[in-house]
Amino acid sequence: MNKDFSLDCYGLLCPMPIIKLAQKIKGLKVGQVLEIISTDEGMKEDAPAWCRTTGNEFLGIEENDGQYRVYIRKLK
Amino acid sequence: MSDKTTIIVFSSDLDKVLAAFNIATGSAAMNMEVSMFFTFWGLNVVRKEKSSKKSTNWMKRMLGLLNRGGADRLKLSKFHMLGVGSGMMKKLMKGSKMPSVKELITLAKELGVKFIACNTTMGIMGISKEDLIPEVDKIAGVATYLAEAKESKVNLFI
């Protein structure tokens, strides 16, 4: 998937990926896409939940051998 | 910022305090306004490791000796085992790249979490303002808590 920025959350457990993602996305412009690389399986649920609550767009998640690539588009 | 989370940190158990900070920092990351009220044993989390002056009341002095403050001194509610269990848990957490309570305090402040210390506990236990870490935003009582809790969607007692 196309991305503008990438965030490495390798090895981090909840709530750290969500906190890092929230901090990182502040620096993005509306419409830009952030990729989060995580090994935390909880992100499968937490990333869409974060998007629902904060009003950003959850584009999808790619799973590959215990590694997750989450894609989020900043909407506001 | 519109939705609010309020958390009463009553316990000074390491495990419970970690859960409280997990939810607090998580809420802040969800763009929520967060207040943490530290009361009774929970006040130890925001106390400095050394108290400024000894109380003249012998009971308060004794409590001060037994109930030491400081985020690094917190014990697990289970398997503390004279510090061995808590030490091992801290090691496991470090191995999992999890922040310590001290680091969580810094992180919570960076995310804009408000720290409120309970004045009643301070009065009973003989803890002065100088005994609290500078991260504490204000000292207040139940009305402050209720005013914030009334507006909060998430409200926890830990």
Plain-language structure description:
The complex is a heterodimer of chains A (76) and B (158). Chain A has 76 residues and is of the alpha+beta class. Chain A has a single domain (5-73), classed as Translation Initiation Factor IF3 (2-Layer Sandwich). Chain A has helices spanning 16-25, 43-54, and strands spanning 5-9, 33-38, 57-64, 67-73. Chain A has a four-stranded mixed beta sheet, covered by helices on one side. In chain A, a hairpin with a 2-residue loop joins strand 3 and strand 4. The longest helix of chain A is centred in the middle third of the chain and has 12 residues, at 43-54. The radius of gyration of chain A is 11 Å and the shape is globular. The two termini of chain A are 21 Å apart. The model of chain A has no long low-confidence stretch (mean pLDDT 94). In chain B, helix 1 packs parallel to helix 4. Chain B has one domain: Hypothetical Protein Ychn, Chain: A (3-Layer(aba) Sandwich), CATH 3.40.1260.10. In chain B, strand 3 (114-118), helix 5 and strand 4 (138-140) form a beta-alpha-beta unit. Chain B contains six helices and five strands. The model of chain B has no long low-confidence stretch (mean pLDDT 92). With 158 residues, chain B is α/β, with parallel strands linked by helices. In chain B, 33% of the residues are buried. In chain B, strands 4-3-2-1-5 form a five-stranded parallel beta sheet, with helices on both faces. Chain B has helices at 14-29, 58-66, 84-95, 101-110, 119-125, 142-150; strands at residues 4-9, 33-38, 114-118, 138-140, 154-157. Chain B is globular, with a radius of gyration of 16 Å. The A-B interface holds A 11-16, 18-19, 21-23, 50, 53-54 and B 3, 22, 25-26, 28-31, 96-99, 107, 111.
